[in-house]
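Example record used in the benchmark description.
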Amino acid sequence: MKRSTYRTVVCLFVLVFPAGLFAGDMTPAAMVYSHGGTMLNGSAVPRSSALFSGDLVQTGADSVANINSTGSTVLVLNDSLIQYEGDSLKLEHGGVSISTSKSMSASAATSGSPPPRVYSPNSRSGMWMAESKLPPGKVTLA
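Model output (structure tokens):
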């Protein structure tokens, strides 16, 4: 009787707690797809690469990059530098276009004492663009 009870408990654990729940790290990750000379943390991206929180993506004068994460797509425009933060981006310079259904936000680097401003997309359309050009800290949303 004890043996069948033990077997029943083990079977319930297998059904209720699949092994996949214990296996993965739940940090947000994405894929970056390069179109031209794109750098990821200072190294060239051949065509695609995994992207994790804190990674830097830099595009050259003749390149763009697409970032696909769950619920969001980001187009990193040419001559841009961004830092991917999972559910947000830090735009150091250049421009991005974000389409999101999960409210991805972006902050633009500013020089001087005011803190960076955080921009969020229109809640209805989920699409927006941010562009940071000289002087540092000037941002245009469209």
